[in-house]
Design a protein that fits this description.
The structure holds two protein chains of two kinds.
Chain A lengths: L11 H26 L13 H10 L10 E3 L5 H7 L3 H8 L34 H15 L5 E3 L9 H10 L8 E7 L2 E2 L2 E2 L10 H5 L4 E6 L3 H18 L3 E6 L21 H11 L5 H24 L25
Parallel strand pairs in A: 1-2, 2-3, 3-7, 6-7
Antiparallel strand pairs in A: 4-5
Chain B lengths: L3 H15 L2 E6 L19 E3 L4 H13 L3 E5 L10 H13 L8 E7 L14 H4 L6 E3 L4 H13 L4 E6 L18 H8 L27 E4 L4 E5 L2 H14 L5 E5 L2 E3 L3 H11 L2 E8 L4 H13 L8 E5 L9 H5 L5 H13 L3
Parallel strand pairs in B: 1-2, 1-3, 3-4, 4-6, 5-6, 8-9, 8-11, 11-12
Antiparallel strand pairs in B: 5-10, 7-9
Helix pairs in contact in B: 1-5, 7-11
Classes of the chains: A alpha/beta, B alpha/beta.
Chain lengths: 336, 351
């Protein structure tokens, strides 16, 4: 268990920081679900249960814009990573409520479909797994730039059935043309309503990477310390060698697939936030009073974010023609 | 004069040198082959991808996401269909991200029939491509236009689709590409890879100059008063030939090379149809929901009271593919005799 590892030797400040971000991400997601339930949004999908994976990922990536920084090709359960990168609750809420102020999509897309070019966060897409070969493209350009930056791609276990997943394993591992790519799968053992057993014959998804001579492992994605240590090691390996690495992180899915399946709490799976919280309390790194105050603080921030977003304008109907082409070039055939 | 394969090669070289084009890639695009049509021989940045169309398009999107410019080739358009959702995403990325990520990438792919290419080397893609919003789509009919359109694609900040008619890849043009040597044998000696061992061969590039054809600008290849014939790619040549033949019968035919499928030159079509009152659109993609049906619809809608005859579309028959035997191919895509017959019929119509 976490306590036995003495938190992997991580500094107390790092542990608390990880915990705070995990709580923040959870509170935000629960606030977004409430917004959906209140009829203020059409759909919710997100990442409760992936905090222990996503927060260390966001903290450890080299954050910035351009080829000397890491690229993040994320899936729609990546709120924890975005929170760790610095996204505000308000920005996620604006996306959820289709406000014109929504930086990621301008009110055009679902929750969780983030896009932050200032941190090299590529747009999250609804089609599963397309991010895998796209990540090979950014990794290719990063390798050419020679700044030891890497590309990171995340996705679910069910999506690995798509051919794009296999494409990335092949493209990243060609001899003498390897790519600096961290290929990851967050295995929550579900594809909407279909179980892992119903979709997979392989023992571990990570075994598929081994066939391409890619450094590969399965980790407990509900343990933020294990995640932090593994990511640190694998990111360093990729930066040093220019070769890919593969991590299968076994995670929870705590509110089902999305609002379409009810977005109700799932009590039978491990809650990584509560697990980590208990461990920190037991180790006297946190006190109960501090924990309570932290949840309350983020809860208040979430309420304020919703109120602020609610007061802002929604996307204007005439904006549908914006950004079809770059630089405002006309795309409407009626005006050719 | 160069052929279209050489023109494409020269455009790619010019872009490597002057536009910071960093990757030209696809199946067999790099050495030693330099493309199945030789259009990428001798290029500094050309490399061989895996045999994986989705991998090619996905990588192109990623490269473009970093701001680097690339040209990705799908060896034949017949094999582009499994990338449709990636093309869709490439086209909608700027829009979906509220203007935050543009993808300056070009995809080029040979299209159409005309080389006895059987079912899977004869597909057209222009009608499909016209539904890929966010893309600019072009299709040249001659080497100079191929050069100018490809350079415009590479320079553009949006995803661009360059459809090269495979039957025209060895056809020489009538206009020199700026910087091209006068003697085609000299050009061949400079930029065509030798047969056999190519390990020590390097292209000797002429001093090429920039030549850009703007998107959405067609070209009138024959002026006329009686009917407007609008086409592009391989069939533009057929339409021009027919116009010349029918001239001896007294027909006055205006032929428009659209060049750019989206955006398209509506002002040129409109001015021409207003003048002639009759219009025929010709291409070889399948006829049901053909791109030219949109153009025909627009003519009907906007110029109805100026028409002397019903607008027509002559396109490939709505078949699953192009059969290999010439009897099958010729009966699947428009032939000169059909174009001529339809022109005569439209011109005979009176309101």
């Amino acid at each position: 268990m976490i306590e036995k590892k003495v938190f992997g030797g991580l500094d107390k400040k790092v542990l608390i920081h990880i915990y705070e971000l995990m709580v923040k991400s959870r509170v935000l997601e629960e606030r977004l679900i409430k917004i959906y339930r209140a009829g203020e949004s059409f759909f919710w999908i997100g990442g409760p249960g992936e905090e222990a994976w996503g927060v260390p990922l966001g903290l450890l990536g080299r954050k910035g814009r351009g080829l000397e920084y890491d690229f993040f090709h994320l899936h729609y359960r990546s709120t924890p990573t975005l929170i760790a990168l610095g996204m505000t609750m308000l920005d996620a809420t604006r996306l959820m409520m289709n406000r014109v102020t929504d930086k990621s999509t301008g009110g055009r897309n679902f929750s969780g479909h983030y896009c932050f070019p200032e941190w090299n966060v590529a747009p999250v897409t609804s089609p599963l797994e397309v991010q895998y070969p796209i990540a090979c493209g950014t990794a290719h350009a990063q390798k050419r730039a020679g700044k030891s930056a890497i590309s990171i791609v995340t996705g679910g276990d069910a999506g690995t059935a798509e051919g794009d997943f296999a494409s990335s394993l092949i493209l990243a591992s060609r001899r003498a043309q390897e790519l600096p790519l961290l290929i990851t799968v967050q295995n929550n053992k579900w594809g909407i309503s279909t179980s892992y057993e119903g979709q997979h014959g392989e023992t571990n998804i990570a075994d598929r990477a081994k066939a391409f001579n890619i450094k590969s492992r399965v980790i407990n994605g509900n343990d933020p310390v294990e995640v932090y240590l593994c990511l640190t090691e694998d990111m360093a390996y990729i930066r040093k060698t220019g070769k890919p690495a593969f991590i299968e992180a076994q995670v929870s899915r705590l509110y089902g697939h999305s609002s379409a399946s009810g977005a109700n709490p799932v009590m039978t799976e491990i809650d990584p936030v509560k697990e980590f919280e208990r461990a920190l309390l037991k180790a006297n790194i946190l006190k109960t009073k501090e924990v309570k105050a932290l949840w309350e603080e983020f809860e208040a921030e979430g309420v304020l974010a919703a109120a602020t977003a609610r007061s802002e304008q929604v996307s204007a109907s005439e904006s549908i023609w914006d950004h079809v082409y770059a630089a405002g070039e006309n795309a409407d055939w009626r005006n050719f | 004069m160069s052929n279209m394969a050489q023109a494409i090669r020269m455009a790619l070289h010019f872009a490597e040198k002057n536009y910071d084009l960093k990757d030209v890639f696809g199946q067999d695009v790099g050495a030693p082959l330099g493309g199945v049509f030789t259009a990428t021989q001798g290029l500094k940045t050309a490399w061989n991808s895996t045999l994986d169309e989705r991998g090619i398009i996905g990588m192109a999107m990623g490269i473009a996401m970093t701001g680097d410019r690339c040209v990705a080739e799908i060896q034949f358009a017949d094999y582009i269909f499994n990338t449709l959702d990636l093309l869709k995403i490439a086209g909608n990325t700027l829009w979906c991200t509220n203007g935050q990520y543009n993808l300056p990438m070009t995809v080029m792919t040979p299209v159409g029939a005309g080389i006895h290419g059987s079912i899977y080397h004869s597909h057209s893609f222009d009608a499909w491509a016209s539904r890929l919003t966010g893309w600019k789509v072009v299709m040249p009919s001659n080497p100079l236009d191929a050069y100018g359109l490809l350079l415009s694609c590479i320079q553009d900040p949006n995803p661009c689709l360059f459809l090269n008619p495979k039957a025209l890849m060895r056809v020489r043009g009538k206009d020199l590409i700026p910087g091209e040597p006068l003697n085609e044998k000299d050009l061949k000696a400079m930029i065509d890879a030798p047969i056999g061992d190519r390990t020590k061969w390097k292209a000797q590039w002429p001093e090429l100059q920039e030549y850009l054809i703007p998107f959405g600008k067609g070209k009138i290849t024959r002026s006329g008063e009686q009917i407007s014939v609008v086409s592009y790619g391989r069939h533009l040549l057929l339409c021009t030939e027919v116009a010349d033949q029918l001239k001896s019968e007294g027909y006055s035919i205006e032929v428009i090379d659209l060049r750019s499928i989206y955006p398209y030159d509506w002002q040129m079509i409109k001015a021409s149809v207003k003048k002639t009152g009759r219009v025929l659109f010709v291409n070889e993609d399948t006829e049901v929901t053909n791109f030219c049906e949109h153009l025909s619809y627009r003519v009907t809608k906007e110029l109805f009271y100026e028409l002397l005859a019903a607008p027509r579309v002559l396109a490939g028959k709505n078949l699953p593919g192009i059969g290999l035997h010439p009897n099958l191919e010729d009966n699947s895509v428009p032939q000169k005799t059909e174009i001529a017959a339809l022109i005569r019929k439209i011109c005979a119509e009176a309101p």
